[in-house]
């Protein structure tokens, strides 16, 4: 997911990436950066990473993305933002197996599922990162989103959302499922098809390459609730 230290408010603007080198601006614990990293891993795309402290952002980062969000990719002077847009670019621009579903109807249904998955994301954010009094409501919303994924998998009968192997939509949905498994595994196990799907995803090489320990997900969520986030906690724990 990128071991570089997270650059903060007073950091200097890094030199531009070299010609044809893909640079990712991200954050190690961001599920949206995770989306892009999964696609890069699945495609075998070499890249460099600049991690950003999202609480104390470098002022220069707003010239890369005026919203201050991650991920952003930079290549040959071009800047592209948004996790889905950058992931689609990588799939389109680089060689290797195409991850995007080609059948128009299947692709449309996956797009609808991504819209439904916004409930999973919204509920997760409310339950994981905000005060405990909001957790019950967040979990309820999150489960409504998980039910949509469960229904989709049941209706298609496929091993993965994109078919017989993980594709782009799988990698867009997985990062939040990984975090839900870490924080509230019962929310996964109560959905039969989501649970089976998640076990299969955990065997995927890109997922293995980008996976963070459950303990890191739990500690990051706890730090967010305390408003005392240490973005470089992994390095500190590994060195102790």
Automatic annotation (TrEMBL):
EC number: 1.20.4.2, 1.8.5.1, 2.5.1.18
The keyword Nucleotidyltransferase is annotated on this UniProt entry: no
Gene3D superfamilies: 1.20.1050.10, Glutaredoxin
UniProt GO cellular component terms: cytoplasm
Every GST N-terminal domain range: 20-98
Single GO molecular function: glutathione transferase activity
Keywords of the record: Oxidoreductase, Transferase
Keyword field contains Nucleus: no
Coiled coil: none
Catalytic activity: RX + glutathione = an S-substituted glutathione + a halide anion + H(+); methylarsonate + 2 glutathione + H(+) = methylarsonous acid + glutathione disulfide + H2O; L-dehydroascorbate + 2 glutathione = glutathione disulfide + L-ascorbate
Domain of life: Eukaryota
GO BP annotations listed: glutathione metabolic process
Domain GST C-terminal, chain residue ranges per copy: 103-220
Family classification: Belongs to the GST superfamily. Omega family.
Function: Exhibits glutathione-dependent thiol transferase activity. Has high dehydroascorbate reductase activity and may contribute to the recycling of ascorbic acid. Participates in the biotransformation of inorganic arsenic and reduces monomethylarsonic acid (MMA).
Protein name, as recorded: Glutathione S-transferase omega
